[in-house]
Queue: 4 jobs
Job 1
Amino acid sequence: QVQLVESGGGLVQAGGSLRLSCAASGRTSSILAMGWFRQAPGKEREFVAGIEWSGTSTRYTDSARGRFTISRDNAKNTVYLQMNSLKPEDTAVYSCAARNYQGVYAYWGQGTQVTVSS
């Protein structure tokens, strides 16, 4: 089992920045990659960014590319999402998830609210 705990959400004005953290514990050797997802009210959950657990490869959705940066600190078993130039449409609950070697995002954090005011 892998446990994930997010932190760093909050209220920010448009154009501002936030950094989300996702601390992993438990059987972290089973993690292939980590991802950040978000779900806005009335919308489906969407992928935002991903990073290999042991490598350097990253992926971003088009709306995040150029504004968000995903990074990883393996010594702390923590993944970060640096979000800059935030827009009201970035308002959502952000969750991190761990992808296992079967390719499934099998473990999820509880989510953290990000609210961007205009």
Note: The two ends are 40 Å apart (CA to CA).
Job 2
Amino acid sequence: QVQLVESGGGLVQPGGSLRLSCAASGSIFSIATMGWYRQVPGKQRDMVATITSSGSTRYADSVKGRFTISRDNAKNTVTLQMSSLKPEDTAVYFCNSKSVVAGIRYDYWGQGTQVTVSS
């Protein structure tokens, strides 16, 4: 079982920065692909950024050049550094862990943290 706890959300002005953190429990963190997703009411949850166990990253086109995902396997944490924030970045941001162990897929979600970009 993996538990994911996000922190760092809040209200920020357009052009500002925020740093989201996700602390993970469980022994499979180091092999998991970690990711950040976001969701606005009435819409599907979309991928923002992912990072594999080897450090390969992938970003949604809308955040490339503005967001950076990183992980610390020693501390079981994944971070999303967000800069040049726009009102359209407003959403609930969720931390995600995906892994496959002995052929079984595991997919865990955090509870989400609200990010609001507004003047």
Note: The chain has no helices and eleven strands.
Job 3
Amino acid sequence: QVQLVESGGGLVQPGGSLRLSCAASGNIVSILSMGWYRQAPGKQRELVARVYSGGNTNYAGSVKGRFTISRDNRENTVYLQMNNLKPEDTAVYYCNADLWVVLKRETDLWGQGTQVTVSS
């Protein structure tokens, strides 16, 4: 069984920074990609950023130039560095992984979510 455990959320003023972490553990054979999504109250969950095994990344247009996703392959951990945060970044942030366990590909793995609140 695979688990994704997130950390690093909190309350920050506009213009501030936060760094989120998500560690995957369990019987992992290989990780194809990991990503961050967010869901604000009354809105659908949306992609924030994703990083692939070859190092390629993609970002939502609203966070390009402010957020950076990175990955530590040895630790099966993905990070999201968030700079110049805005009130509209307020949401619950979720980690997602697309990976192989023994004989099976898992694509619908989610962490428990971490709250990010940007407010003065």
Note: The mean pLDDT is 96.
Job 4
Amino acid sequence: VQLVESGGGLVQAGGSLRLSCAVSARTVSGYAIGWARQAPGKEREFVAGISWDGQLTRYADSMEGRFTISRDNAKNTVYLQMNSLKPEDTAVYYCAAGPAVGIAASQYYYWGQGTQVTVSS
């Protein structure tokens, strides 16, 4: 199982970024994919998750309305569109695969290496 994140970077507050998670072909169907983030000195926290067929999505309360998760199984890719970014969104963002769309990072079993997102004020 391989997951590779990309799309992180530096953005000003109020700006947008789209993160991508490239998923190995054997993983893309049948697994839910989630995004989590970890800021320095803080625990890893769930951001959003999507079922294998894209029919179910779940978000952390603080991200709903600003972040959108989607997937394109034909491209073996899951996306996280992040709008209205705030300095407190600064973190390393990880994508992960699991058996269901959990709302806790601990419910995902396989993890990518992460991509840094920095939001300046």
Note: The longest strand covers residues 91-98.
